[in-house]
Amino acid sequence: MDLLSTVVQLRARQSISTFGYAGRQVQAWFLREIGRMAPELAAHLHSANDPSDAQADRRPYTLSTVYKGPGVPRSLEEGDWCWVRITALTTDLSHFLQDAFLRNLLPVARIGQVEFDIIPWNPENSGDPRCGCQTYAGITRCAVESDEIRIRLKYTSPTTFKERSKNVDIEKDVPLPNPDQVIGSYVRQWCQFSNIPLPEDIGEFVDECLVVSELKNIQTERVQLSYSDPNRAVTGFTGEVTFRILGSSSKSHFGEDWADYAAVVRAMGLFSFFCGTGRRTTLGLGQTHMQ
């Protein structure tokens, strides 16, 4: 098992009139719990939060914000059931989460201003579509065995990409499902954490052969990442996007290799369930599910 996705169930111990997006507070709780069980691992994950680190957006886990049902709660009542989702992108972290973290959580978690009861982890949650485990080799095998030319992805939390202005030192949000940025985000995560190599020119294939063929329920949403700083906000898109792989072995300059490149794109679609999409995936952005 290289990749893990799991859900932790929460029950609010108190009411609060204003709650909202709590991605950063979930991350703080997650790192505190790891620090209690494995200080060296926590130090490593904390160091990855350094914005001066070139790999800062390539961390071996993702987190959701707190959800109540399918949505982010604006307020909570005592006794409300909620959940957070956690994924791991390396073998070591996946096994640590399954064997230690999920089994030894403190019974009460403080996330932001609210305390939650932690519901003991149930290993028999294999039927939950938010959960699963896989290997990089398994994803590769599934992608090669398929001949599907459509990749349908659902973005359930705001998703955005980072772009730097050419003439000034300003970073901009790009809340658009551009194929090169979407697949590029998966390729960078895969290359960071998997030992299965990808073609160096996969970006050229995406540019030539991958298009957006359908958009459904697409909308943008502004997310406040800090309770105290109104300037720490991100605009992202949510909704369903279908990408289509164009061409064939006889209608692409990739020739007989076209099928191999198409399989890589399918693999990236499968991988997106675990790695999320775009930036700030450790703060709840870019939650992705393959349809």
| Relative strand content | 25-35%
Q: Radius of gyration in whole Å, from Cα?
A: 19 Å
Tell me the structural class: alpha+beta
According to DSSP, the number of beta strands is 12
Question: End-to-end span in angstroms?
Answer: 22 Å
Q: Which series of helices and strands comes N to C? A: EHHEEHEEEHEEEHHEEHE
Mass-distribution shape: globular
What does this structure look like?
With 291 residues, the protein is an alpha+beta fold. The chain has 2 domains: 3-132, 2-Layer Sandwich (Alpha-Beta Plaits), CATH 3.30.70; 135-290, 2-Layer Sandwich (Alpha-Beta Plaits). Helices cover 30% and strands 28% of the residues. It has 7 helices and 12 strands. Strands 1, 2, 3, 4, 5 and 6 form a 6-stranded antiparallel sheet that branches. A 4-stranded antiparallel sheet has the order 10-11-7-12. Helix 4 packs across helix 7 (258-275). The longest helix has 18 residues, at 258-275. Residues 50-56 have low confidence and may be disordered.
List keywords for this structure.
alpha+beta, Alpha-Beta Plaits, 6-stranded antiparallel β-sheet, 4-stranded antiparallel β-sheet
Task: Please specify the SSE layout and strand pairing.
Elements: E1 3-12, H1 23-37, H2 39-47, E2 61-63, E3 81-88, H3 91-101, E4 108-111, E5 114-118, E6 132-134, H4 136-145, E7 150-159, E8 161-164, E9 171-174, H5 179-193, H6 202-209, E10 210-224, E11 233-245, H7 258-275, E12 288-290
Antiparallel strand pairs: 1-3, 1-5, 1-6, 2-3, 4-5, 7-11, 7-12, 8-9, 10-11
Helix pairs in contact: 1-2, 4-7, 5-7
